[in-house]
Amino acid sequence: MSITRTPMTSVDRAWLRMDSPENPMMICGVLALDRQISINRLKHTIEQRLLCFDRFRQRVIDKGERAYWQEDPLFHIDNHLHQIALPGHAGKTELQTLVSDLNSSALDFRRPLWQMHYIDNYESGSAVLLRVHHCIADGISLVRVMLSLADTTPEPRLRRSASRKTPAPSAGSGLQKTLHRAVDSALMAAEQTRLFLSEIRKEPNYPMKLASAAGGIATDLLKLGLAPFEPATGLRQPLSGRKQVAWAEPLDLAEVKACAKVLGGTINDVLMSTVTCALQRHFKARKEPIPECGLRVAVPFNLRPLDQPIQTLGNKFGLVIVPLPVEIQDPIMCFNQVRENMNRLKHSYQAQVTYSLLDLFGRGPDILERRALDLLSNKASAVLTNVPGPKEPLYFAGGKITQPMFWVPQSGTIGIGLSVFSYAGTVQFGVTLDKNIHADPDEVIAHFQESFKALSHAALAGREGLINRQAG
User: Fold this and answer.
1) Are 419 and 441 spatial neighbours (Cβ–Cβ below 8 Å)?
2) What is the CA angle 30-98-178, rounded to 5?
3) What percent of the chain has pLDDT over 90?
4) What is the pLDDT of residue 425?
5) Overall CATH class of domain 5-158+170-183
6) What are the strands of the beta sheet with 58-63, ordered from one edge?
7) What are φ and ψ of residue 84, in 5° steps?
8) Which reaction(s) are listed as its catalytic activity (predicted)?
């Protein structure tokens, strides 16, 4: 009996081949729950809502220059779902240690490339840790998958048998709206897609606009290739492969929005500025010279149509290299520069360029991809993801999700991952660091919170001063 194999796309294959002992290509998500949940109910939820995606039943078959998805003949949910417990009623420190250890461990390539751990004894409830290889899907898709496992109420009605077809939320449901919000990436994805696929096609100047777009793409490709390497700092070190993760107490999303409104920017501008100032505080605390030319971070940029159904996994995003002006001391001036940098990127083709490069590398020999990856990873000091999540609280197997967090992998020689995720009126911030990086994750978390407070206070003070001047 012949075995059915599905060819892996070239872009997914590129992410598969990026896996290394120093940087396993895993997306890692943690859901803190307000109570302990039934392991049987958790299995039922996984069978109904996760295993309906074929990729979570398939393993990777690597045949030299080609890679395939193939059904695992020995698939069993117990090979992927594990139940463990923290000592006593442990807190965030103990959970962060466990997540750090698991995030440093590679997945088993003999089986489908995902693992879930149900963790008992976390504070007054529990937690769930999900690790998925990047070749299965990008972060935007996996956020949607994780949200499809959740419910808007504690007690949904589960179907009796798992369907191999993807469940589709009913039209107009709160969960469907949540999924649509999650697919909308934090960085202007809709605008770039519109620029690339719509604007250049408007008559009567389509040929000229197409030529202009081609010129813009060529220019961005040249800029990317000629961009200087990142400055030598404690954030750029040979990697050990051992990870440390930490996450902050959430920010109030309403306060972030208010700050953005006062400063005349977006929520993303505020959060990017906060990250910039946090890195600046890191250099000061370590008594390390602040790079005069600033730093850069690689930011995943969604290229998937916003109305694409959840059935579609795989990787459909590019990377944009975002300059962070860490050399600017004043928080308002720093914000203005970040906003200007972000506005400039809205009209570039960097995301399409990097996606096309990934497609090219996935079709070529492994050595070509390795050399190109080494080149590109020297253009940034960290990977930063910013994904909008659901506006209302969700429930997972009956437990209320009190705090979600996720981290994407770092590629090549990059050893820092920064994650921003909005959820139920809050903004979550997390960091993962290679142990050889000269930074403490808890200190970075503290710098982020302090930087937001400083920016918010400066914005409010500036508004009050303007009001006073106008009144006088």
Assistant:
1) no
2) 0
3) 49
4) 95
5) alpha beta
6) 5-7, 66-71, 58-63
7) -135, 170
8) an acyl-CoA + a 1,2-diacyl-sn-glycerol = a triacyl-sn-glycerol + CoA
- Rounded to whole angstroms, how far apart are CA atoms 388 and 51? 25
d(CA 359, CA 234): 32
The dihedral built from the CA positions of residue 38, 39, 45 and 48, taken in this order, carries a sign that is: negative
Q: What DSSP string describes 200-258?
A: GG-TT-HHHHHHHHHHHHHHHHHHHHHSPPPP--TTS----S-EEEEEPPPEEHHHHHH
Average pLDDT along the chain: 80
Torsion (CA) 292, 297, 298, 299 in degrees, nearest 10:
-130
DSSP string, 6-59: EEPPHHHHHHHHT--SSS--EEEEEEEESS---HHHHHHHHHHHTTTSGGGTEE
Whole-number Å distance between alpha carbons of 71 and 59: 6
The reported pLDDT for the residue numbered 13 is: 85
457: left (phi over 0), alpha (psi -120 to 50) or beta: alpha
Q: Is the pTM of this model over 0.85?
A: no
What confidence score (pLDDT) does residue 132 get? 93
Distance in angstroms between the alpha carbons of the first and the last residue of the chain: 87
Backbone angles phi, psi at 252, to 5 degrees: -80, 120
The pLDDT, as a whole number, for residue 20 is 87
Nearest residue to 415 via CA among 390, 395, 439: 439
DSSP letter, residue 291: P
Dump pLDDT digits (tens) for 175-200.
444 444 444 333 344 444 444 445 44
Query: How, if at all, do strands 26-33 and 125-133 pair?
Result: antiparallel
Task: Quick: pLDDT tens for 314-341.
Answer: 776 667 788 899 999 999 999 999 999 8
Q: Which residues does residue 404 pair with via DSSP β-bridges, in sequence order? A: 31
The rounded distance, in Å, linking the Cα atoms of 185 and 301 is 7
Q: How confident is the model at residue 357 (pLDDT cuts 50, 70, 90)?
A: low
Q: What is the secondary structure of 296-351 as a DSSP string?
A: EEEEEEE-S-TT--TT--B--EEEEEEEE-TT--SHHHHHHHHHHHHHHHHT--HH
Neighbour tally for 76: CB within 10 Å: 9
| Fold classification of 189-391+410-471 (topology level) | Chloramphenicol Acetyltransferase (3.30.559)
Q: Are strands 81-90 and 114-122 parallel, antiparallel or unpaired?
A: parallel
Span(s) in the chain for CATH 3.30.559.30: 189-391+410-471
Contact 114, 107 (CB under 8 A): yes
Which residue pairs, CB below 8 angstroms and at least 24 apart, start in 456-461? 456/255, 456/258, 456/259, 458/330, 458/331, 458/332, 459/259, 459/262, 459/263, 459/332, 459/335, 460/259, 460/262
Q: pLDDT band at residue 79, thresholds of 50, 70 and 90? A: very high
For residues 163, 168, 173, 175, the Cα torsion angle rounded to the nearest 10 degrees is 80
